[in-house]
C-alpha cells in the first residue's frame, strides 16, 4: 500500500473524475508507529471532529487505547479520504496532560477534588443565585464540538429548567452568519445543497472560503474534478493567495470590509445581462424588485473601485457565475467574520435565487460551518435558537415546545431573541451575569480583544465553571474545572455542514475520572432538581440513545426532522442527511426542490431582520412581505467598515484558521506531526509592503492595533498589498506564561481584534482591524516557521519545504 | 403654502435625531453594538439634513446643509464616565433610558416625514414626495431598531 507524507501533501493522491461520475474511493489511514492493521483489536465507527466536513472514519482500538484511524470507504462524504488533522489529530486523546480529576479553586489555586464536591459547588452556587437574582444571573457558553445529545440536554436544562435565555455556543464566532443568512433567504436554517454538488457543478464559487485548509477533503474532491475531464471553473473571493485562489479561473482579492459592495457589483452585472430565471423569480421568490433597484445604481466600475479589484475581473466572475448551468457556491469566514457579514452572505443566496439554481444536482449553496457539530448547536437550541428550528417570536412554536417538554410556555424565555455570546460577556462585564458555565471552548483565546475578555473572566464576582478535556487558558481562570470525556470515549451523533448525520460510538474508556459531557449535564439537572409541570424530572433520559430518542420527538415535523433515524440505522451507514422521516426514510440530499421552501409564516424559523440594524421583523411585517412561503431576496446597502486602515494604523489586519491547526490548538498542538508543521504563529505580508518597509523573511515583527500587540516572524507571501495576516487561536497554554501574555509580548491574534459584530448574526469581526507593523529584530537567514504548503507559501525559494518525514507516513489505498 | 414650515421642522428634528444617536453612541462605547450601529444610523440623518437643506432652497429657506457637529467636549468627558460606569450594573438602565429617548425622537421625525409627504401630495410637489419616499423608510428603520433594542434589553436591565 502506498505511503504518503500527508503533512507535505495535505490533499494526497489525485483520483480524477468527470462531471456526473461517482467520486472514486481512496481509503486513507494512519496508525501509531509499530501497529499494523492486522494488530488492531476493533474498529469503531465515527466521523471527524476537527472541522465541519464530517468525514466518516473508523477508530482503531488496541489494548483499550485509540491507536489510529481509517477513512470509511462507503461514507457519502469522504469516500474513504481523511485530512491531515483527522489522520494525526486523534493522538491528543492519549495526551498525558488530559484532565483526569475535577478541580476547585481554593485560596486562589485550583486543587484536585472529587466529583461530588465539585458538582455541589456548581449546583450550590447556581441555586443560590437563582434565589437571589433569578435566571438572569446564569449563563451557558458551549461549543461546536459536543454531540447532538449533549446540546439538546443542555438546551432543556437552560431554557426549560433554569429558564435563562443566556445560552449560546462558540458557533457564534464561527458560523452564526451561516444560520442567519439561511434564515433570511429561506425562512429556515439548513443547507440547501450537498457535497455531491461538486460532482456535477460546472462553476464553483468560493466566497471567503479557503476550503483547501478548512475542509481538506472537500477540496480533494474539487481537485479531483479539476484533474478530470470537463473540469469546473472556480471563482475565488479572498484577499490572500490561498490554494483555492491559485487554482481559480478568476480570483477577486477585494479590500477587506467590502464584500457587500463586491456582491452588489456581481448582482448588478448578472441582472443587467439578463442572466436571470424570470419564471423562477415570479413563481418562487419575493423581493426581487428591491434588489433590482438597489443594484441598478451600483455599476461594476463603482463596485470595483470600492473593492479595489480590476473591473474586468469582476465582469469575468459575473459572466462565469451568470452563465453557469450548474452553480455551486460555498461561503465561510472571509464573509462571516467580516464587516456586513449577513448582508454579504445573503447576497450569495440571492445569486442562486435570481438564477433559479437550487434543489438540482450541481446547484447548491453551502453556507459552511467551521466546527464539526456546529449544525447541532443550532438545531438543538444550544446556540441562541429554540430547539427544532422553532421560531422564538411565534407563540404557537413556543407552546409546542412547552408541550414536548411538559412545561408552562411562560417558563421558556421567549420575550426577546436568546442572548448571544458577545452580549453574555457584556452582561458578565456589567455584573448581571454572575455564573458562567463554559463547555468545550476557550473564550480566553478565541474571543475578540483578549485583554478585555481575560479581565471579565477573572472577576471575583463571576463564578466560572469550565468543562473541558485539557486545562485551557480559560480553565486556568475557572472556579471549578470539570474533566470531560471526548470523541472516542463517549457515544453520540453529529451533523456536518451538508446535513449528514453520523453516529460516533464509544471506543475506549475516558482517562481517570473524566466523564462524558452528557453525564455531567444529567448530574447537574439532577442536583438542581429540575422538574416538569407534573413534578416529574424534566430531563427524562439517562443515556445518549435516550437523549437521541427524545430529540427525535422534538424535531418531528420541523425542517430538521430526525424522526426516521435511529442509532441502529446510523450504525454501519455511510451517513444519512436530514430531514429523515417516515416519508423520506433514506434522508434528503437537497432541499428546496421545485422551489418549495420552509418559509410559510406559521412554519418558518425566523421572520428575518433588518440587514443593517439587525432589528427583527414582526410577524405582521413578515406576513405582509411573504404570505405564501416563498424564498426571500433581501437587498443590502454597502456601508464602509467601522474601523478603517490609515494614519497611525495603516494596515488592514486579517486573521484566520490554517491547515494544521484547529480551534485553540488544544488538540492539534498535541499531535506531533501537526504541531511541527506550524509550531508558532507567523505574520504574512506582501512582497511590496515588506520591501518598502525593509523587512525580510523571518524578521521578528510587532503587530499592533488600538487593542494590543503581538510579535511574530514574517512570512512574505503573495497577497493584497496593505494587508497583514495572522493565524488565529495560538494562545498561551503551551508557553511557560500560562493563560495570557503576562509581562511578555502576546502571540494570540485576538489580542488585536476589535469588539464589533454583525448586528444581524451577532458574529464578531475577526477579519478587519486597523494595524501597524514595526520591526523588533532582524533575523537574517532564518525563515519563519509558517507552512510552505498552504496560503502561507513563501515567495522566497530558500525556505525549506514543510514536511512531516518518517513519522507522518500515512497509508493510501486506491481501488 | 406652509411647506417651508415642515421642511424647517424636519431639518431641525433630523439634526436632533443625529445628535441623539451620536450622543448615545458615545455614552455607550462599552456596549459595542449600540456604539457602532448608532453611528451608522446617524449617517442617514446627516444625509437627510443635506437633502432637506437642498430642497429648502426652492421654498426660500437657507438651511445649513452640514449636520450639527460631533458631540461636544463635555459629552466626550461623559463618555469616559460611561466607560467607568460600564463596570457597574446601572448602565443597563441608562441604556434603556437612552433607547427610550431615541425612540421618541425618531417617532417625531417619522411623523414629520409623514406630514411632509401628505403636504407634498396635496401641493403636488413631486420632488418633495420623492424625498419623503426615500428618507422616511430609513427613519422607520431607526425607529424599529430603537424598539427592538428596548425589547431585548429590558428583561436583563429590569428583572435582575
Ligand atoms: S477555528 Fe474558530 S472560527 Fe474556525 S472553525 Fe474553529 S471555532 Fe470556528
From TrEMBL, chain A:
Locate the 4Fe-4S Mo/W bis-MGD-type domain: which residues? 41-97
Spell out the Gene3D superfamilies in the cross-references.
2.40.40.20, 3.40.50.740, ADC-like domains, Dimethylsulfoxide Reductase, domain 2
What is the name of the protein in this document? Nitrate reductase
Pfam families the UniProt entry points to: Molybdopterin, Molydop_binding
Q: Per its Swiss-Prot or TrEMBL entry, what cofactor is needed?
A: [4Fe-4S] cluster; Mo-bis(molybdopterin guanine dinucleotide)
What is the organism field in this record? Nonomuraea helvata
Q: From the UniProt entry, list the residue stretches annotated as the region Disordered.
A: 783-815
User: InterPro entries from the entry?
Assistant: Asp_de-COase-like_dom_sf (IPR009010), CT_Nitrate-R-NapA-like (IPR041957), MoPterin_dinucl-bd_dom (IPR006657), Mopterin_OxRdtase (IPR006656), Mopterin_OxRdtase_4Fe-4S_dom (IPR006963), Mopterin_OxRdtase_prok_CS (IPR006655), Prok_molybdopt-oxidoreductase (IPR050123)
Can you tell me which family this protein belongs to?
Belongs to the prokaryotic molybdopterin-containing oxidoreductase family. NasA/NapA/NarB subfamily.
Entry keyword annotation includes Metal-binding: yes
Q: Which domain of life is it from?
A: Bacteria
> Which keywords label this protein?
4Fe-4S, Iron, Iron-sulfur, Metal-binding, Molybdenum, Nitrate assimilation, Oxidoreductase
Composition-biased stretches (Low complexity)? 801-815
TrEMBL record, chain B:
Source organism per entry reads Nonomuraea helvata
Name of the protein: DUF892 family protein
Amino acid at each position: 500500500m502506498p505511503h504518503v507524507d500527508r503533512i507535505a501533501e495535505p490533499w494526497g493522491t489525485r483520483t480524477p473524475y468527470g462531471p456526473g461520475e461517482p467520486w472514486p474511493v481512496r481509503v486513507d489511514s494512519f496508525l501509531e508507529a509499530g501497529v499494523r492493521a492486522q494488530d488492531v483489536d476493533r474498529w469503531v465507527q465515527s466521523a471527524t471532529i476537527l472541522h465541519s466536513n464530517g468525514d466518516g472514519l473508523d477508530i482503531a482500538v488496541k489494548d483499550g487505547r485509540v491507536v489510529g484511524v481509517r477513512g470509511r470507504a462507503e461514507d457519502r462524504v469522504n469516500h474513504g479520504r481523511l485530512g491531515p488533522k483527522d489522520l494525526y489529530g486523534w493522538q491528543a486523546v492519549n495526551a498525558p496532560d488530559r484532565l483526569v480529576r475535577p478541580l476547585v479553586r481554593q485560596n486562589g489555586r485550583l486543587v484536585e477534588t472529587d466529583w461530588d464536591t465539585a458538582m455541589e459547588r456548581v449546583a450550590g452556587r447556581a441555586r443560590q443565585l437563582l434565589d437571589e437574582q433569578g435566571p438572569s444571573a446564569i449563563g451557558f457558553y458551549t461549543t461546536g464540538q459536543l454531540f447532538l445529545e449533549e446540546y439538546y440536554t443542555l438546551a432543556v436544562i437552560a431554557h426549560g429548567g433554569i429558564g435563562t435565555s443566556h445560552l449560546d455556543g462558540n458557533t457564534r464566532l464561527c458560523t452564526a452568519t451561516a444560520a442567519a443568512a439561511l434564515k433570511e433567504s429561506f425562512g429556515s436554517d439548513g443547507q440547501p445543497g450537498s457535497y455531491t454538488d461538486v460532482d456535477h457543478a460546472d462553476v464553483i464559487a468560493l466566497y471567503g472560503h479557503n476550503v483547501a485548509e478548512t475542509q481538506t477533503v472537500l477540496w480533494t474532491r474539487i481537485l479531483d474534478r479539476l484533474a478530470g475531464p470537463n473540469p469546473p471553473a472556480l471563482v475565488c473571493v479572498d484577499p490572500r493567495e490561498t490554494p483555492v485562489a491559485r487554482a481559480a479561473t478568476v480570483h477577486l482579492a477585494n479590500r477587506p470590509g467590502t464584500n457587500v459592495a463586491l456582491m452588489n457589483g456581481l448582482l448588478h452585472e448578472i441582472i443587467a445581462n439578463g442572466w436571470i430565471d424570470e419564471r423562477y423569480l415570479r413563481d418562487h421568490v419575493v423581493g426581487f424588485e428591491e434588489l433590482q433597484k438597489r443594484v441598478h445604481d451600483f455599476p461594476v466600475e463603482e463596485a470595483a473601485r470600492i473593492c479595489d479589484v480590476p473591473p474586468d475581473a469582476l465582469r469575468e466572475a459575473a459572466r462565469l457565475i451568470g452563465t453557469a448551468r450548474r452553480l455551486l457556491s460555498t461561503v465561510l469566514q472571509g464573509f462571516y467574520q467580516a464587516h456586513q457579514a449577513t448582508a454579504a452572505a445573503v447576497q450569495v443566496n440571492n445569486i442562486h435565487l435570481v438564477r433559479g439554481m437550487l434543489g438540482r444536482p450541481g446547484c447548491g449553496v453551502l453556507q459552511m460551518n467551521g466546527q464539526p457539530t456546529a449544525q447541532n448547536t443550532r438545531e438543538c437550541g444550544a446556540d441562541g435558537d429554540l430547539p427544532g428550528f422553532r421560531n422564538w417570536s411565534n407563540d404557537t412554536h413556543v407552546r409546542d415546545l412547552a408541550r414536548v417538554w411538559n412545561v408552562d410556555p411562560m417558563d421558556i424565555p421567549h420575550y426577546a431573541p436568546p442572548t448571544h455570546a458577545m452580549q453574555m460577556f457584556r452582561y458578565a462585564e456589567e455584573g448581571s451575569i454572575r455564573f458562567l458555565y463554559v463547555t468545550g471552548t476557550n473564550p480566553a483565546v478565541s474571543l475578540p480583544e483578549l485583554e478585555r475578555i481575560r479581565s471579565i473572566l477573572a472577576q471575583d464576582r463571576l463564578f466560572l465553571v469550565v468543562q473541558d478535556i485539557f486545562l485551557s487558558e480559560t480553565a486556568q481562570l475557572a472556579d471549578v474545572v470539570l474533566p470531560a470525556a471526548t470523541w472516542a470515549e463517549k457515544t453520540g451523533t453529529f451533523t456536518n455542514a451538508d446535513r449528514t448525520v453520523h453516529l460516533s460510538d464509544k471506543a475506549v474508556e475516558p482517562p481517570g475520572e473524566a466523564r462524558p459531557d452528557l453525564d455531567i449535564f444529567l448530574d447537574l439537572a439532577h442536583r438542581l432538581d429540575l422538574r416538569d409541570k407534573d413534578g416529574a424530572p424534566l430531563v427524562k433520559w439517562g443515556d445518549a440513545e435516550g437523549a437521541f430518542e427524545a430529540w427525535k420527538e422534538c424535531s418531528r415535523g420541523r425542517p430538521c426532522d430526525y424522526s426516521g433515524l435511529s442509532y441502529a440505522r446510523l450504525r454501519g451507514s455511510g451517513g444519512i442527511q436530514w430531514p429523515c422521516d417516515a416519508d423520506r426514510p433514506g434522508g434528503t440530499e437537497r432541499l428546496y426542490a421545485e422551489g418549495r421552501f420552509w418559509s410559510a409564516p406559521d412554519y418558518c424559523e425566523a421572520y428575518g431582520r433588518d440587514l443593517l440594524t439587525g432589528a427583527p421583523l414582526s410577524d405582521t411585517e413578515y406576513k405582509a412581505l411573504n404570505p405564501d412561503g416563498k424564498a426571500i431576496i433581501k437587498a443590502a446597502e454597502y456601508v464602509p467598515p467601522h474601523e478603517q486602515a490609515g494614519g497611525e494604523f495603516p494596515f488592514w489586519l486579517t486573521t484566520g484558521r490554517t491547515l494544521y491547526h484547529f480551534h485553540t490548538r488544544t488538540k492539534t498542538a498535541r499531535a506531533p506531526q501537526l504541531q511541527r508543521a506550524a509550531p508558532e504563529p507567523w505574520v504574512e505580508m506582501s512582497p511590496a509592503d515588506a520591501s518598502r518597509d525593509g523587512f525580510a523573511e523571518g524578521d521578528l515583527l510587532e503587530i499592533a492595533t488600538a487593542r494590543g500587540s503581538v510579535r511574530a516572524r514574517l512570512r512574505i507571501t503573495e497577497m493584497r498589498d496593505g494587508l497583514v495576516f495572522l493565524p488565529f487561536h495560538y494562545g498561551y497554554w503551551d508557553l511557560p506564561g500560562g493563560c495570557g501574555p503576562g509581562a511578555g509580548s502576546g502571540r494570540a491574534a485576538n489580542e488585536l481584534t476589535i469588539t464589533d459584530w454583525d448586528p444581524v448574526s451577532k458574529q464578531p469581526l475577526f477579519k478587519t482591524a486597523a494595524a501597524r507593523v514595526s520591526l523588533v529584530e532582524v533575523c537574517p537567514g532564518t525563515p519563519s516557521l509558517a507552512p510552505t504548503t498552504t496560503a502561507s507559501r513563501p515567495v522566497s525559494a530558500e525556505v525549506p519545504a514543510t514536511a512531516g518525514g518518517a513519522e507522518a507516513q500515512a497509508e493510501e489505498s486506491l481501488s | 403654502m406652509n411647506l417651508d414650515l415642515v421642511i424647517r421642522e424636519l431639518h431641525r428634528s433630523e439634526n436632533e435625531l443625529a445628535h441623539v444617536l451620536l450622543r448615545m453612541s458615545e455614552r455607550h462605547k462599552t456596549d459595542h453594538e449600540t456604539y457602532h450601529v448608532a453611528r451608522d444610523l446617524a449617517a442617514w440623518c446627516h444625509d437627510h439634513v443635506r437633502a432637506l437643506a437642498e430642497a429648502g432652497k426652492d421654498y426660500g429657506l437657507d438651511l445649513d446643509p452640514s449636520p450639527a457637529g460631533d458631540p461636544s467636549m463635555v459629552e466626550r468627558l461623559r463618555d469616559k464616565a460611561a466607560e467607568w460606569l460600564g463596570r457597574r450594573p446601572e448602565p443597563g438602565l441608562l441604556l434603556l433610558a437612552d433607547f427610550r429617548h431615541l425612540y421618541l425622537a425618531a417617532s417625531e421625525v417619522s411623523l414629520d416625514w409623514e406630514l411632509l409627504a401628505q403636504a407634498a401630495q396635496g401641493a403636488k410637489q413631486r420632488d418633495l414626495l420623492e424625498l419623503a419616499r426615500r428618507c422616511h423608510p430609513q427613519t422607520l428603520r431607526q425607529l424599529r431598531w430603537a424598539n427592538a433594542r428596548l425589547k431585548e434589553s429590558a428583561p436583563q436591565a429590569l428583572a435582575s
